[in-house]
Design a protein that fits this description.
alpha/beta, Rossmann fold, six-stranded mixed sheet, five-stranded parallel sheet, 21 helices, globular, binds pyridoxal-5'-phosphate
Length: about 500
């Protein structure tokens, strides 16, 4: 399997090269040149998560041997790193409605599903391509990717990692997780701005020839741990298959019965993996894209017009506070049959913040995807009601999914069995979850760290080890920069 850039001016390259580069030098994203199909997925019904992962990953990583893929899978998905042998368990909330819990990894959000394995892919990729430069992983984060990448890459030989996060755009727990990060090869920098500022800044650094030249002299090369890296996206395909196979195994669906997935969406990486799973033959009826008030994707899916010219809203689901959803570029490239219209749209997005796709492409999007959004009040109500009705505490992002699923049912009447992708542990966004579940007197004046314990007492769920004692750890990273200073910050860090 080879990979080419969505901007059409780079590739084809091997999976190793695509993973090592992260983003294509022409500014595009790597996609597989050919479709992959998984024959008879039902043969994996009684397999473990690890066995399923091997079967799904191998056809995308054809320059890796079977033994190498297995080694990566075993190193990432085990009970040292995940708190359940199921890795990504399904929880049956109600008849025909399941939650796919993707937060059992070390940082309590779904980013671990990919970022636990990406460092192993990257290590193999650098070996295969005979790389002797040190790889610098540049990360822009809306909160969860940063910590997951730091955990994945800390002290990995031959790598450095630099994370940029929006100073005001992450929860207290998320921030503490990052600024207390230990490891000899890690740096964390706050940016005065929002996630889009951080992401655009990182993308600009990737394609800045003077920075690249400066670093090459010092023996460094950039790569990415954001979902613009194919190596981040491909492990996410696995859990769509795994969820489906669990439903089959548990007798919840009949052979070939199609299901819906509801995906709380920001950068469009998670839901895009669902799109690829469907292309590979997984019976998915609808992919329901759940947004918060930064609902640029909802508008796009409904109208074919992508317009980021709108106020950026800070919400209680901060990992989805994004107006430029990078991975949409891959979807459009696939839906147009790898056409260079996509380059033009992306150029329009860059220059005017807006583009409109042609009618055929808009129709293709709307046939498969459906979207709506939830505001903060709806999100809080849903956390409260879900807990009252089922005793299940949801995080804010998952709750956005549940609100939007309710709107989908009401709008379409579609009774297809549905999986809501649960992207974070409720403890990770515990201030909002506490507001939903506790009375105001209990919440007021308490820190997020006190609330963790109270929530644990209420729900009987244990506080995940990764979130315990965060307030007692020393702050190791306190640099704050303006967006224009990101480039200098990188140079300063790497010249040290
Ligand atoms: C990153 C993240 C999302 C959004 O996922 P995308 O792949 O960016 O669409 C949703 N919820 C949580 C908790 C996240 O960390």
């Amino acid at each position: 399997m080879l990979y080419r850039s969505t901007r059409g001016r780079f590739g084809p390259v091997t999976a190793s090269q695509a993973i090592k580069l992260g983003i294509a030098p022409d500014g595009g994203l790597f996609v597989p040149t050919d479709p992959v199909t998984i024959e008879n997925p039902d043969r994996l019904i009684n397999s473990t998560y690890q066995e399923r992962a091997e079967a799904i990953l191998q056809p995308f990583l054809t320059d890796f041997t079977g033994a190498e893929v297995r080694e990566c899978v075993q190193s990432a998905y085990n009970t040292v790193r995940f708190d359940t042998p199921a890795i990504a368990p399904l929880y049956k909330l109600a008849p025909g409605l399941h939650l796919l819990e993707l937060w059992h990894g070390p940082t309590c959000a779904f980013k671990d599903m990919a970022l636990q394995i990406l460092p192993y892919f990257l290590k193999k990729a650098t070996e295969k391509t005979g790389e002797d430069a040190e790889i610098v992983i540049l990360v822009a984060t809306s909160g969860d990717t940063g910590k997951a990448a730091l955990e994945g890459f800390r002290d990995v030989p031959g790598t450095r990692i630099v994370v940029f996060y929006p100073e005001q755009g992450v929860s207290e727990v998320q921030k503490r997780q990052m600024v207390t990060q230990e490891g000899g090869n890690v740096s964390v920098v706050a940016v005065r701005g929002n996630f889009d500022d951080a992401q655009s800044g990182v993308k600009a650094i990737f394609t800045d020839e003077t920075v690249k030249a400066d670093l090459a002299i010092r023996g460094y090369k950039f790569s990415s741990a954001n979902s613009i890296n194919w190596g981040r996206l491909v492990p996410q395909i696995v859990y769509y298959f795994s969820a489906y196979l669990d439903l089959r195994r548990d007798g919840e669906i009949s052979p070939r019965e199609a299901v819906n997935f509801v995906v709380p969406t920001g950068n469009f990486g998670n839901i895009l993996a669902g799109f690829y799973a469907r292309r590979m033959g997984l019976p998915i009826h609808r992919l329901i894209c759940a947004a918060n008030r930064n609902n640029v994707l909802t508008d796009f899916i409904r109208t074919g017009v992508y317009d980021r010219n709108r106020a950026f809203v800070r919400t209680i689901s901060p990992s989805m506070d994004i107006l430029i959803s990078s991975n949409l570029e891959r979807l459009l490239f696939e839906l147009t049959g790898h056409d260079d219209r996509v380059s033009r749209w992306m150029e329009q997005l860059r220059s005017s913040g807006c583009y409109a796709v042609d009618a055929d492409t808009a129709r293709a999007v709307a046939e498969l995807f459906w979207s709506d959004f939830a505001d903060d009040a709806e999100t809080i109500n849903t956390i409260r009601n879900t807990y009252r009705e089922y005793g299940y505490p949801m995080d804010t992002h998952t709750a956005v999914g549940r609100v939007v699923y309710g709107k989908y049912r009401a709008a379409t009447g579609d009774a297809t069995k549905t999986v809501i992708v649960s992207t974070a542990s409720p403890f990770k966004f515990n201030e909002s979850v506490s507001i939903a579940l506790l009375d105001p007197e209990t919440v007021s004046g308490r820190t997020e760290f006190e609330l963790l314990e109270i929530l644990s007492g209420l729900t009987g769920w244990v506080v995940p080890p990764g979130l315990r004692n965060l307030d007692k750890k020393p702050v190791l990273h306190d640099t704050v920069v303006n967006r224009e200073e990101m480039k200098d910050a990188i140079l300063r860090i790497l010249r040290k």
